[in-house]
Amino acid sequence: MHHTSRYFFIIIVLLFSRAAIADNIDYDKELDTIEQYLATDTGYAIKKIETVLASESSLTSSQHSRLHRLVGSKELYLGHFVAADKAFDEALIDGPTGEELTNIYLLKITANIGLSNYQKAFSLLEENLSRIDNYQNQSIKIKSYNRLMNVYLQLGAYDEMLRIAKLSLNLNQGKDPKDQCYSMLYLSVAHSKLAHFDQADTLFKDTQAYCKDHGLPLIEIMSIRGLATVLFDKGQYEAAESLYLVALERYQKFKFEVEINEIRSYLSVIYFHLGDYQQAEMYAQMVNALPNKPSNMIVKKRVNETLSLIAGKRGQFDKAYQFQVVASALGQQLLDEQKVKENAYQMARFDSVEKSRENSSLIQDHELLMKQKDLFMKEKSSSIMFSTLLVGLSVGLLLLLISAWLQRNQFMKQAQRDGLTGIFNRRTGQEMAENEFIQAQTIGERFSVVLMDLDLFKNINDQYGHGTGDWVLKKVTNVIEGMLKPTDIFTRMGGEEFAVFMPKQAEDMAVDFAERIRNEVANINTRFSGHDFTVTVSCGVSTVTKDDLSLDPLIHRADLALYRAKHNGRNCVISYDDTMKP
């Protein structure tokens, strides 16, 4: 009995000792440490997070919110968007305010973009923007703007990103080095994304030097990586390679998987261009082994294109075709996702405008009614005027509704069109063509498909810039539009690939049409773009057979014919035959 009592006494002493130790821990300092190391040593930050999570019951409400915001940030680094979103929901439970609330909301927007929940992301963005604009504290505003720029980056809203970066730098004036670093980085990235390469080059170098001097290594590495991408986009592959390797080695310490995978995908392309196919294949296979989730689609598309080119160089055309099919499928997913993102953005802006318009209209209505009431009370004979005003108000409201309806229809029309060229996007074009195909099969009419791909288009972007590439796409579109029949359905399938779906057209007529397109494209005068080069197009043609039950087999056969045209030296038209079966 004596030993048992002594044993319980020891346990109680240990428990009280642990409680005393827990009470002595400064959790705010612990959370400060985690915040700091998330930007310098992610591995260490993760260990510290696990330690604090073990003592979660000892935290105050504000500490609990902050801890789970940091847990969510860690999950974002690792690309675990579902876990990140759950962590941010947990962080909101205790009702954080001010800067902490803004940080959680903006990170939650990032998680929802990663999950492709764009409507929710835009809803949160709109709510948060109104909160940021009302802040009186400049420091909170700057930090919020820096978070906001990351959201605009993911949405592809680079002009907005550039505007906010300049605003943030103007507000900060170098007072907070960390905020200055982030704002400088986002300004550099915005210029890079807008193809202002000379400005981006200088800005990334300035950002790297500034952030290194102020002890912010993660942003310094991001600047190195950004500079490497500028060099890559300019076709300076050897210079880009050395910088990418430096960034890759330093990112390993942070376990920044998203950036690590991005760099590996770029290295695979670089080594292909440098003729080191073994290295190119090694990096490509590392990326290709990643799980098929949204955050990996861009890098997997990039490396599958590289693997296709490597297989083609080795004469392994079956493999090359398989890799290209995967890359095309991923490219289509990315285009569809971008379209969903753009539509969500447009509708969010439309809804915002409509809400403002509605509020304004309600205020105006109220003022008018009050004036009408005064007039009525002062002079009963003004009833005719009152009626006139009421009718005018009704007409005004009717016009407002018609305007809103027309605007909504305009947005719906925009959702069917490719943003750059103005022709049908892939989804709309194929849906329309499928309906025409079904009608053609019902009455036994012919139906043909012409698939077109601009030859070596990437070289135009690399050598002359994306602005020139966009000029080429629009010029080719204008040329082809002038050759179409009213029944033809002209569609941008993605990137530099187009299709013309041709109801009631036999194979020989489709081949003749494709040849005319090839000749017209080859005769485009490119000097108006500011450069002198040649544009050519390869075409694949297929026509309906009695066994076709949908449009997909025709597109597939046209794609095989197009692939043959590419490997026959490009700038030619090939019609599908049975020898092309994969």
CATH architecture of the domain at 424-580: 2-Layer Sandwich
Strands of the widest sheet, in order across it, are 1-3-4-2-5-6
The CATH first-level class of the domain at 424-580 comes to Alpha Beta
Determine Rg (CA atoms, Å). 30 Å
Helix run count: 23
The end-to-end span amounts to 84 Å
What is the fold named in CATH at topology level of the domain at 424-580?
A: Alpha-Beta Plaits
Q: How would you describe the shape? A: elongated
CATH homologous superfamily classification of the domain at 424-580: Reverse transcriptase/Diguanylate cyclase domain
> Poorly predicted ranges (pLDDT <50, ≥5 residues)?
10-22, 350-363
Please count the beta strands (DSSP E, at least 2 residues each).
6
How much helix, percentage-wise, in residues?
over 70%
Structural class, please? mainly alpha
Q: Roughly what fraction of the amino acids lie in strands?
A: 5-15%
The main pleated sheet reads as: 6 strands, mixed
GO molecular function: diguanylate cyclase activity
Transmembrane segments: 384-406
Keywords: Membrane, Nucleotidyltransferase, Signal, Transferase, Transmembrane, Transmembrane helix
Organism: Shewanella vesiculosa
List the helices and strands and how they pair.
Elements: H1 2-24, H2 27-38, H3 42-54, H4 61-77, H5 81-92, H6 98-114, H7 118-133, H8 138-155, H9 158-172, H10 177-193, H11 197-213, H12 217-233, H13 237-254, H14 257-273, H15 277-288, H16 297-313, H17 317-378, H18 383-416, E1 424-425, H19 426-443, E2 447-454, H20 457-464, H21 466-481, E3 489-494, E4 497-503, H22 507-522, E5 537-543, H23 552-567, E6 573-575
Parallel strand pairs: 1-3, 5-6
Antiparallel strand pairs: 2-4, 2-5, 3-4
Helix pairs in contact: 2-3, 2-4, 3-4, 4-5, 4-6, 5-6, 6-7, 6-8, 7-17, 8-9, 8-10, 9-10, 10-11, 10-12, 11-12, 12-13, 13-14, 14-15, 14-16, 15-16, 16-17, 17-18, 20-21
GO molecular function, one term: diguanylate cyclase activity
Protein name: diguanylate cyclase
Domain GGDEF: 445-578
